Amino acid sequence: MSQGNEGYRLEAPVVVQVGHRGRVRGRTGAPGEVELCLTLARRLRENVCKRGVDCRVVDAWDRRGRIRTGAFLSLHADGARSSSVSGYSLGFPPECRDYAGDIAHAYKEAVDLPFRGANTTSALREYYMWRRVDGPKCLLELCFVTNPDDVGEVLFRLGNITDELGGVLADWGSRFQARLK
């Protein structure tokens, strides 16, 4: 679907980024985070493509250029010193509030985890992908990977998560895909 114009490395209706995947230095993620996020990313790609919308999965370390998309979702899992900390959260730039709201609603429908709120820390406001992605974008912290019950909940409900998030991604991505044709 890449048109090779306007300086974009990738144009795709839906792009799912696997947080920390491919990183060899800096913030490499909590143990198990990449594997959990990659499992979901692959399932989401299958689900969205079955709905007739192109979906690409990219690594976090891929910094080769700009991305234009109808729906960008960066998957992560939090970590904490205590294994009792639980829940999920979202991060998004202010202009993506509607898209992030759809993602939040879909995830809430899919899992039985507490919502820890929107992450608006200065570090997230400066998240490098926000500058590189043109289109609706959101970072979803799926759970606390350091909490076995959280991870179990995500894995147990993987089908629900895939269906709910896949529907949102396909909906937003289909609008973008229609403009490319």
Protein architecture, described:
The longest helix is centred in the C-terminal third of the chain and has 23 residues, at 158-180. Helix 1 (33-50) links the parallel strand 1 and strand 2 (55-59). Helices cover 40% and strands 26% of the residues. The model has no long low-confidence stretch (mean pLDDT 85). Strands 1, 2, 3, 4, 5, 6 and 7 form a seven-stranded mixed sheet that branches. The chain has 181 residues and is α/β, with parallel strands linked by helices. The protein has helices at residues 33-50, 97-110, 122-125, 128-132, 148-156, 158-180; strands at residues 8-18, 55-59, 66-78, 88-91, 115-118, 133-134, 137-144.
Classified in CATH, the superfamily is Zn-dependent exopeptidases
What's the number of helices? 6
CATH fold-level topology: Aminopeptidase
Low-pLDDT residue spans: none
Helix content: 40-55%
The SSE string, one letter per element, is: EHEEEHEHHEEHH
Largest sheet: 7 strands, mixed
Q: Calculate the mean pLDDT score and round it.
A: 85
**Total separate domains:** 1
Q: Which CATH class is shown?
A: Alpha Beta
Q: How much strand?
A: 25-35%
Give a nutshell description of this structure.
The chain is an alpha/beta fold. 40% of the residues lie in helices and 26% in strands.
Topology:
Layout: E1 8-18, H1 33-50, E2 55-59, E3 66-78, E4 88-91, H2 97-110, E5 115-118, H3 122-125, H4 128-132, E6 133-134, E7 137-144, H5 148-156, H6 158-180
Parallel strand pairs: 1-2, 1-3, 3-6, 3-7, 4-5
Antiparallel strand pairs: 4-7
